[in-house]
Amino acid sequence: MSDSSNDITKQKLIDDFKTLVQDGEELLKVGADELSKETRDKLSDLVGRARTIYGSVEDRALAQARAADQAIQEHPYESIGIAFGVGVLLGLILTRR
Q: Of 10, 21, 72, 88, which one's alpha carbon is 20 to 30 angstroms from that of 3?
């Protein structure tokens, strides 16, 4: 899998997780009257943990993106060579099938 498609997959995962946290918070607000206190507390705890995990995943993804950007800026010719090599290998593999 290429870095750009991997980045897209990571971003999709982050976006989906963010949506999940927001939906959980909304469910907690809307259904608060209909849920027992124990269920509300459990759901609130789960939403809080999900929010913490989301923040951690987002922070790591941003740090990795910054590190990759810095490596490319420090070694532009090597980056171009690696990208070219990967493209040639993928071309060979895909044309053999």
A: 21
Q: How far apart are CA 53 and CA 40, in angstroms?
A: 20
At 68 the pLDDT is 85
47: which residues sit within 8 A by CB, 6+ positions away? 21, 24, 25, 28
Residues 6+ apart with CB under 8 A from 72: 79
The string over 31-52, giving b where at least 16 C-beta atoms fall within 10 Å of a residue's C-beta and e elsewhere, is eeeebeeeeeeebeeebeebbe
What are the residues whose beta carbons fall under 8 Å from the beta carbon of 7, sequence distance 6 or more? Answer: 65
Whole-model pTM: value is: 0.47
